[in-house]
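Hey, resending since the last one bounced:
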Amino acid sequence: MKLQQSIGLSTVYPREEDFSLDLANHLSALGVGSFEDFETESSVGTRRADIVATGDTGTLVVENQFGRADWDHWGRLEAYARLKEASVAVLVAESFEELMIVTCNLRNEDSETDWHLIQAEVNSHHELSFHQVAFPAIDIQVERKNVEYSEFWAPIRDSGLFAGKPVPLRDEGWIGKSVRGIGLNLRLNKHNCSVLLYFSGDERLGRRLAVQELFAGTDLDFELHESPKFANLIFPVLDKGRQDHEDWPLIRQQLTETGERIYRMIESSDV
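The structure tokens again:
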């Protein structure tokens, strides 16, 4: 099997602004919290932040750049995060120098904001991936913020296909898993829940079409969404969500059953 080589982001995106827009539509891929409403080129004083988003986790500020991260972008991120009173601040780049990683880790020790350095990589199939390079340690988060964990996801994380670490309350909007290179998220919004499949890279539309055909004729309805570099299928589950506390057992059951059914069908297919 031929290994995929990393290529530069600039070979996929003509401008950093194009990457910002694509990233803004898929903030969950960063794994830093639950954010739904975003603005690109968001005004901050006389400057513009690449991405500012809000959601259950608070306010997110993202600066991104092609190539190696520089201190100019780090300085902008610090300024924007302070002015926006951000709960999470992220610098996305293709590489970072050691001093910046050390600086970010030290910043996490004395700040109420969560600081992240995230490496963005794209392979020769134009498939994107993100890797946390620097981030707040969980013990620092607990000590500093008395982190609370989601009551909704707790039973789901205890056992079964979607078992895993407890979900911080700030990240309550989704949990994710991958199947045959396809991202699968269980999503919990205020008044509804759904299963999201996301495809990236040049072959995303073809792979999505193959999955659509896989589910054709089943009782699983889905909606199509796409952006310049991603293609999504959204399977609505219930018009009930986080605010419907009395229905949580039903929501958990139907959300996980739907997610596992979708996962198993893709896992056993040749898509």
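The chain has a mean pLDDT of 87.

Sorry for the duplicate.
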